[in-house]
Specification:
The complex is a heterodimer of chains A (530) and B (430). The radius of gyration of chain A is 27 Å and the shape is elongated. Chain A contains 13 helices and 26 strands. With 530 residues, chain A is of the alpha+beta class. Chain A has three domains: 87 residues, Ubiquitin-like (UB roll) (Roll); 92 residues, Alpha-Beta Plaits; 214 residues, 3-Layer(aba) Sandwich (Rossmann fold), CATH 3.40.50.740. By secondary structure, chain B is an alpha/beta fold. In chain B, a hairpin with a 4-residue loop joins strand 3 and strand 4. The radius of gyration of chain B is 22 Å and the shape is globular. Classes of the chains: A alpha+beta (530), B alpha/beta (430).
Chain lengths: 530, 430
Amino acid sequence: MAEMVTLTIDGKEVSVRKGTTILEAAKQVGEEVPHYCYHPGLSSPAMCRMCLVEVEGAPKPMPGCVTTVAEGQVVNTQSGEARHHRQGVLEFYLVNHPLDCPICDMSGECYLQDYVHAEGRKHGRGREPKRVFGRDDFGGDVLFYGDRCVMCTRCVRFMSEVEQDHRLTVVERGNRSVIDTFFDEGLDGTHFHGNVVDICPVGALVSKDFLHKARAWDLTHTPSICTSCSQGCNIDHHTRDNLVQRLKPRENLDVNGWWICDYGRHNYEWMNHGDRLEAPLVRGGEPSGAMGWGDALRTLLERAADKKGSVKAVASPFASNESLGALKRLVDALGGGDIVYRSPRAEDEVTLEGFPTLVRRKDLSPNTGGAGRLGMKRVGDDEGHGGLENVANHDGVLIVLGDGLLDQAEAFGADAGLFVYLGTHGSAAAAEADIVLPITSHAEMEGTFTNYEGRVQRFWPSLDAPGMARPAWLVLGALAAELGRGSVVKTAAEAFAALAAEAPAFSGMTYDDIGTRGAVVNESVSLTGD
Amino acid sequence: MAYPYVSDHEIRIVSKYFGDPKQRRVETYVERGGYKALEKAFEMGPQGVIDEVKGSGLRGRGGAGFPTGVKWSFMPKDSGKPHYLLCNADESEPGTFKDRELMRWDPHQLIEGCLIGAYAIGAGHVYIYCRGEFFEVNQILARAVEDAYAKGYIGKDIFGSGNDLEVTVHQGAGAYICGEETGLMNSLEGKRGQPRVKPPFPAAVGAFGMPSTINNVETLAAVPHIVENGGDWYRGFGTEKSPGTKMFCVSGHVNKPGNYELPLGFPLMKLIEDVCGGMRDGRALKAVIPGGSSVPIIDAEESARCNLDYEGCIEVGTMLGCASVIVMDETADIVKQVRRMVDFYAHESCGQCTPCREGSSWTAQILKRIEEGRGTEEDLDTLMEMTQQMVGTTICVLSDSVAAPVQSSIEKFRDEYLALIRRGERVGAA
């Protein structure tokens, strides 16, 4: 047990671990001390002077971000003196600030805007012409608006301490100080530079990708998991008009800290693709054509009735644990068979040097951890292609879940007794499918992924599903239940409970346990399928 | 000896050989009794030296006036780490020109002081951080260090005592803020010259992350004399609380400006009238800045009551600082003087802390506007209030230095500000 220190912050007594800063201790009593330069993932230069708090007995106001707590200390973060200091500092910030909030991307989520609205002077006293730096292209995805900068140097410290690639620096001194790149070498070629936009407390560093795309107050934030590799970074989907507008990291010290890689950050357009499968489709025999779910699933069961005993299935490592579990139940109910999946792999890993837990993994799918733990086998090459030779000509029941089959010939599944294709988009290889069922992408459903280390993490729906598309676990679970395997699952939590009841790796876990932080699977289970 | 001006009131201890170029030669320095104090210090032992300096009451001559012996005693005794002594020779306070002369005329006196100080705090290496613009001084120091190495006063096993001491002269690149002790350390380490957050203090984590002590040139120059003659001898000069002699750099509207070494507690008016030959052209005294541009300005009435020691200056609401006495007669334009000083600080602000970065240049802009006749009375209120926000709210005290002249001049010379504002109003400039 670490040594504890008891102090009083704003009249509330609190015990914190020795060595905690006043700023962090204040969080525990529910007081957010305004700050710019402090970031929990970076060193603290104590230079923005916003977090000055009144410590009784101290001759001067103390910076809360570097002053550590002491036994019996009495701290006032909301006293007249502390507010007076903040008001003074805020006025200094506005002396040269362009006040261009109406055209600033950060407006609505800007800490300068927030703090000035909360505690600033009603009217500025500056009459002097403002200093003008103008704009600069920092390379990569980053644009720099020098005039908005508050010189907190978070971006400089991120690049030097976390990415550990010294691409940014402060040049000049005094109020001529400005963030700059070295010569023409900007942020191009670095893999985590998008984070400097996230940690910029104002609109000085903005994303080119997001530039003038949406106002912050129009965006809905939904917690999710990045699908670009098996790291399973915690992210938020920022959506507007049923479109993902951008991805932002969500803090989780066990997985990604406060950061995500640029590869994942910009890999979201696919979630917005139109041209979706929107209605169940049945081909060959009667009935056929587009139809409602009830008719389609009844037809499927009828046609499958005489073909039990020889099943092959292709799953996708982009499907949730719940969907994969439901697929497994259905395959078992139809007589059992192999389930394979394909996943692209990168040649190299990219490690975030200053936070080495975060790695852009070689495995570029979010749920190979789940597929492997359910006994599915990885096939195909590092492009995620090939490997389906035994499946393509299978003459029993063939189920494809989520794999687009983009590399496969049109004759794929031509010999199958029954070819069921569950997907978000149609493809040429699915043309032979007897039954095509529209399912949701992970952005349109609730569920879990299992990351590289076996951490099960939840995600929530950020988009409305198109047409009649439904989560795969719902469709597959209903079919399995109809065939006598398990009961009908109506929610993702029930689907997970059904999975936990069957798969030893997930046994004992519930959605409540997993929460927003994730929980690690029972690792007595050996991994199969790579 | 033809050093510009000398006075009978002077007690010349550290400035004894000003004007004598021969003193720069190591042979002459030794002939005149040099490096004897170092030998004596080795006999006294580190604690003996610290006690002697403590007993002398020597206070830091860089501006803060912290007792030197006490500062040395803060150094850890058995840290197991290398210790460093840093000599702050980055003299750049406007109005100050004492360290330059001390190094220029008597470099070995400083080197000997450094060696004694290093010995006392258990440091094996001394860095003399010399202001970049002091080109001649840097050359003289480098030569003196080379000579002292050649004669064995620096290096391995000095005087066969088994003590090893190294001295490096580091030439700065010309930034005022590198005279701030932790800014100096960053600069010495090759980083941006920005002051560090304290704590940790230099005695715990200083240069290169090791325990360090930093002393002003004049402080260290006095050390050999104290070791040689004893702390009680040094206490014979000056006052009870401010013992010893001090270099006074007098500039401005006096007949004989220059460096004068006087006992602390010397009356300011006596300095102006008797030592410096009175006011130029017999004009009346208007204002004095007694301690370099970062201390509050005092008017003629306050000057008449001011004794030049650490306590005497505080009594009249200012500070002794580094004793750079800037004298202004009735023709001086106070607003312009203050604006000029604030311009300097705005230019030299390192840019870390917001109040200093933004406040200093904003202050300069407002003062410029007032000077040009485009100011308003509200500007004076704004100046008073915003400079108050710059005191005690930053990592170092540079922004306090902006506030001091602005606030004191508005308090004491408000009429001059108002005259400029009224004149502007009459011609419609505002």
